[in-house]
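Bumping with the actual sequence this time:
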Amino acid sequence: MTRKLLRFGKSLDFILSALKTIHLSDPVLKLTITMSKLAQSVFLIFDHIIFAHNLGIIKADKEKWSRYSSQCWLFSLTLNLLRNSYDILSIISNEAKAQENRQRRGQYVNGGIEHSVTSRKPMGRVQILKKCCYENQPVVLDFVKNMSDLVLPLNSLGKIKVSGGIQGSLGLLSSAIGIATVWSPILKLVP
């Protein structure tokens, strides 16, 4: 109940965040981030209705509103994961192209026009993936956080069956990542 009370009004913050992301130039980021923020806002509004019902302020069908809330949360997480996947694929694609360009680029020998191929061995796919993950930690952390959170609404909606221990462990992982991004803002994914 305390957590829900502390989130009261956060839905307005998500609406304001959505208004800021409408102006992004990348259409995929614009769509996924803006829609995700709006879905998070609606999720919290439904959550506020459940909170008010639990306090006895209003009478509401708790199960119905909880289902709607979980659906909005699931939609938001799905959009976040689409955005993460798009970011990761873009990063890997750009790195692969950069690796290819480095391999094609020759070196001039003594000012002559002859080229010699660089002697460095090209990076494999796994090496490129590791390099991209290491150099783009905010995207990787956000992806892991969203994957961890995804289990909760899926379980609430009855799509999967997960034990309380697994839910708690994934919630702990998600919270630890959230704390890390607050503690070290360079780990926070923007925009």
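The tokens above came from a reply further down the thread. The first strand starts at residue 106 and ends at 108.
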